[in-house]
Amino acid sequence: MSHDELRGRVALVTGAGSGIGRASALGFARRGASVVAADIDADGATETAGLIEAGGGHAEARRVDVADEEQVRDLVRGTAARHGRLDYAHNNAGVSGAASPVAAMRKQDWDRTIAVNLTSVFLCLRFELELMAEQGHGAVVNTASVAGITGNASLGDYAASKAGVVALTKVAAIEHAPYGIRVNAVAPGFTATGMTSASMVDNPEWAEAALAAEPVGRAASPEEIAEAAVWLCSDAASYVVGHVLVVDGGLTVGRRPPDAPAVTVDRRA
């Protein structure tokens, strides 16, 4: 994609205060889109918007609890009111889950994970699709996870929430493709974000196993996931509908050979 391909268009990114969401917001901005960076962490969202503005782009920060219907409604409708349109949305906000076996999981942990990871995507879609249908165009990408495809021991709430995102993405895509709206999802594998770092502290055995299983021998960077999300929204993916793009270094293909060498990547190349 060129650096001005999205000029004149508007992108909304939730969970934009850090990690994949921040990388996605910066990716949309680099291609010319005006970005609404939304996050429950107001400081993080403001920092992301500041990075975009410092790079010559256009952005605004909005604090939002994506599990609150009224706040999501105001976010989406407010974006359209201020900018006159909404071309792209990346519904990315999420939490890592409770790190507990299903038999020991507390309902309050289950409820929070489902609310932030799945109900929020429903709420965002509810208002984004309503608006995009009136426009007659739009593209949405939801952040799922390989955990929602393969399952992860001790992450039942997280895996269930992400499996729900996969299913919801496909249903929304079927319903809205006739209206010129494309809905897709990106399913990251092990990715080096602040949320992942917290999970590594809470569940170091899981983190060690996840890295050991990666065929490429490393975690993804947030930028690698974000590039896939931005591409799914772009005109380059104009015939991609209802797809779950797995970006996992080959994790869902098979496990890394136990004697494989460590891999280092020189990103200066």
The profile of the biggest β sheet is:
7 strands, parallel
Topology as a string of helices (H) and strands (E):
EHEHEHEHEHHEHHHE
| Alpha carbon gap, first and last residue | 19 Å
Whole-number tally of structural domains: 1
Number of helices: 9
User: What amount of the residues lies in strands?
Assistant: 5-15%
Structural class, judged by helices and strands? Answer: alpha/beta
What is the subunit arrangement here?
Answer: single chain
Fraction of residues in helix: 40-55%
Number of strands: 7
Name of the CATH homologous superfamily = NAD(P)-binding Rossmann-like Domain
In CATH, the architecture is 3-Layer(aba) Sandwich
Alpha-carbon Rg, integer: 18 Å
Mean pLDDT: 91
What is CATH's topology name?
Rossmann fold
CATH hierarchy, class: Alpha Beta
Textual characterization of the structure:
With 269 residues, the protein is of the alpha/beta class. It has one domain: Rossmann fold (3-Layer(aba) Sandwich). 46% of the residues lie in helices and 14% in strands. It contains nine helices and seven strands. It has a seven-stranded parallel sheet with strand order 3-2-1-4-5-6-7, with helices on both faces. Helix 2 links the parallel strand 2 and strand 3 (59-63). Helix 1 packs parallel to helix 2 (42-54), helix 4 (107-135) runs parallel beside helix 6 and helix 7 (194-202) crosses helix 8. The longest helix is centred in the middle third of the chain and has 29 residues, at 107-135. The radius of gyration is 18 Å and the shape is globular. The chain starts with 9 loop residues before the first strand and ends in a 22-residue tail after the last strand. Belongs to the short-chain dehydrogenases/reductases (SDR) family. This is SDR family oxidoreductase. It comes from Haloechinothrix aidingensis. Pfam families: adh_short_C2 (PF13561). GO terms for molecular function: oxidoreductase activity.
